[in-house]
Design brief:
- Pfam families: Methyltransf_33 (PF10017).
- Keywords: Methyltransferase, Transferase.
- GO terms for molecular function: methyltransferase activity.
- One of its GO terms (biological process) is methylation.
- By secondary structure, this protein is α/β, with parallel strands linked by helices.
- The chain is built from 8 helices and 12 strands.
- The strands form 3 sheets. Strands 3-2-1-4-5-12-11 form a 7-stranded parallel sheet. It has a 3-stranded antiparallel sheet with strand order 6-7-10. A two-stranded antiparallel ribbon has the order 8-9.
- Strand 2, helix 5 and strand 3 form a beta-alpha-beta unit.
- Helix 2 runs antiparallel to helix 8.
- The longest helix has 19 residues.
- It is globular and about 60 Å long.
- The two termini are about 35 Å apart.
- Bound molecules: N,N-dimethyl-L-histidine.
- N,N-dimethyl-L-histidine binds next to helix 8 and strand 10.
């Protein structure tokens, strides 16, 4: 069956624009200007993120893909006989194909990619349906930070919420805990949450990953401004903002900003926002994690798979891999 599950309600295109506008007005109206990284991801932003994943400096995707490639069998071995795989923020679902193929038609009840970028999600779902012809893809265009819509579980499959790519790093620690708890509830009593996190490492490696030589990360960062011009009738000169990303070791996070190159005023949907020269909009945090020293960690995270040299432990309700 190739039916498409579509979430209704708050994720419809009209209200998505409205929520973008409300967030922008609130974020740029604050004394320290911020925007949520979720607004990077329209079709153009999702494609730019795919380009980032191919960059020599951006080790995250390559390393995680390596872990999944070499441990795919071991990873899915713990998932049970009948599984529905739910992926919040699925994007292009690149790594997931390996796991879906490893599960195969007998064990895989359905794949549920959930993504805020409706158009990109539709393209991903169409591609997957041709690539893996037995796969039942039930996509949901939704903002997973607000809702995780799940289709009916007709055959009582075990729900595995798969959250790779270190997307968890884009949430501040208390929000990350809340999000994982919500995923845990969505997975249900016998469900699993499988998580990929990026670890702290040499700041020079981290710095390069978010300041690539080709400037793709800068384009990705500025896409949120371009999107305001496209969708919110804004008049922003992209050249008047600079991409600025750095590793902040006290919090163990990358901070990504857009810094105004001059004193200026921009107009968004008829509202005016003033910038001092050098004033920034913080557009993203990307937290880097430590491996827990014991398995009594508060978030009950367990690291089963990691790159060589790291310890490995496990708990029954969650498994993770780290790069
Ligand atoms: C999606 N997320 C995990 C990426 C990251 O590394 O935080 C987004 C990104 N931002 C800049 N480069 C990649």
């Amino acid at each position: 069956s190739q039916e498409a599950f579509e979430s209704r309600g708050p994720s419809s295109a009209g209200s998505a624009r409205q929520r973008f506008l409300v967030d922008v007005i609130e974020g740029l109206g604050a004394p320290r200007k911020t925007l949520s990284p979720k607004w990077f991801y329209d079709r153009a932003g999702s494609l730019l993120f795919d380009a980032i994943c191919e960059l020599p400096e951006y080790y995250v995707t390559r390393t995680e893909l390596g872990i999944v490639k070499s441990h795919a069998r071991e990873i899915v071995a713990h998932w049970g006989d009948r599984v529905r795989l739910v992926e919040p923020g699925a994007g292009s679902s690149t790594k997931t194909t390996l796991l879906l193929e490893e599960l195969g038609p007998t064990r895989c009840s359905a794949y549920v990619p959930v993504d805020i970028a409706r158009e990109h999600l539709a393209a991903t779902a169409a591609r997957l349906r041709t690539e893996i012809e037995w796969l039942r893809v039930l996509s949901a265009a939704a903002d997973f930070t607000v809702e995780l819509p799940l289709p009916p579980n007709d055959d009582n499959a075990r729900t595995v919420v798969y959250f790779p790519g270190s997307t968890i790093g884009n949430f501040e620690p208390h929000d990350a805990e809340r999000l994982l708890a919500r995923f845990g509830r969505a997975a249900g009593k016998n469900g699993l949450v499988v998580l990929g996190v990026d670890l702290k490492k040499d700041p020079a490696i981290l710095h390069a990953a978010y300041n690539d030589a080709q400037g793709v990360t800068g384009q990705f960062n500025k896409n949120v401004l371009a999107r305001m011009n496209r969708e919110l009738d804004a008049n922003i000169d992209l050249g008047s903002f600079a991409h600025y990303a750095f590793y902040e070791p006290t919090h163990g996070r990358i901070e990504m900003h857009l810094v105004s190159r001059k004193r200026q005023m921009i107009t968004i949907a008829g509202r005016r926002f003033h910038f001092r020269e050098g004033e920034s909009i913080r557009t993203e945090y990307s937290y880097k994690y430590d491996l827990p020293r014991s398995n009594t960690s508060r978030a009950r995270l367990a690291f089963r798979w990691s790159t060589p040299g790291s310890t490995t432990t496990s708990t029954s309700r969650s498994s993770s891999f780290a790069c």
